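Hey Z.,

So I finally got round to the dihydropyrimidine-2,4(1H,3H)-dione thing we talked about over coffee. Here's the setup:
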Amino acid sequence: MNRLIKNGTIITANDTFHADIRIQNEKISEIAACLKPKTGEEVLDAKNNYVFPGGIDPHVHLDMPFMGTTSADDFESGTRSAAAGGTTSVIDFAIQEKGQTLKETLEIWRKKAVPKALIDFSHHVAITDYNDYIEKEIPEVIKNGFKSFKCFMAYKGALMVDDSQLFRIIEQTKKHKALLTIHCENGDIVALLQKNFIAGDCTSPKYHPLSRPAIIEGEATGRAFNLARYLEWPVYIVHMTCEESVSRLISARAKGQLVFGETCIQYLLLDDSVYEKPNFEGAKFVMSPPIRKKKDQDYLWSALKLGHLSVVSTDHCPFDFKKKKEMGKNNFCLIPNGAPIVQHRLNLLYTYGVLTKKINLNRFVELGSTNAAKLFGMYPTKGTITVGSDADLSIFNPKPEWTISAKNHFHNCDYALFEGWKVTGEFAEVLSRGETIFKNGKAFGKPGRGKYLVRKSFE
Ligand code: DUC
Ligand code: ZN
Ligand code: ZN
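And the result:
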């Protein structure tokens, strides 16, 4: 499908300029002022609108078996929600079960994703059961296109790896040029604190953040950085929430260590008063790490502004409030961790980041798309607007004001994390490889049209 986007203001991580964009065979073929339509070309008018590179959310959990249930969005509803929010690529996590090989793990995730995805996708390979056999599989996994891995330092008895496994996995990522993403919380101490609270009959959602204090996130982050420093290889810390962890990122980088940090939109905008909500509603906000204090939000915004944090993602992992979150009615440790967010990430970052002048439009694009493309081996095919890039583009009308609600979101979830929040600006039209997948509030595109992202090794 050949198309021409006219009259838009193009925003990339580096530039802001007025130009037209020609799309041929799924790619951007020309960018220039006043391009004339060719025969058979469809013209899209982006007058008074921004044209952004499609968003990239490198941290979503779709169709993920977790805590006795499965995350509510599969690759169809999850990628449709992403598209509705201007995101045209996601990286999910293929999570190894105990005893499984990585090949088996990736095959299970391939079957979940390929028939359903509406946008392009990949997986970080989450290693939960490391041994010599798994170590031997790593080069093959990388050769097959999976250039990033994941370790959990929390979820003891389930997903958690110990320090020696973590050490060995960083060593392998160095040997084979991949990037390890790490969930940093001290899982031993979390398990201990959880046990103490439950023994003391402290069972409600408000004990969730108390069982996972910022200091144990900071401790695990520092430990991960020390191992990476010894091994002289970068790591990428997912969902950083607080001063205790981000201050360690800043000092590691100041000493010349190449390490990367991501935060999520919810940690920038919410504070831990959400856990005090009546009628068990605090459970809607149970995720790990938990929502922190107002002072941590301020710290995260300044770390974003100063360039210490590289990515704003979501950790999208929805569970219905009814029946699913309610599994933990009498014990907060049994509340499935996670929330529906992927659709609202960029609208929230624009409204509460750009319009409040905490970040500018170029930094918005960098945090929401470009840096993830660079770190996870997709740039410049994804993450920017240039000749030769995939035509993953969103046309954003900065004017309309609307209110986030579960009544009209695309998430397959009975509540919205940001219910009632006002946002400004809407994605008028979203293109994935030149094809409209979202327009004027309606989603298009056949399930299965999304392709595996082609990724380069981490250098
Ligand atoms: N945290 C969550 O809240 N959900 C999914 C996994 C994670 O680390
Ligand atoms: Zn995590
Ligand atoms: Zn996660």
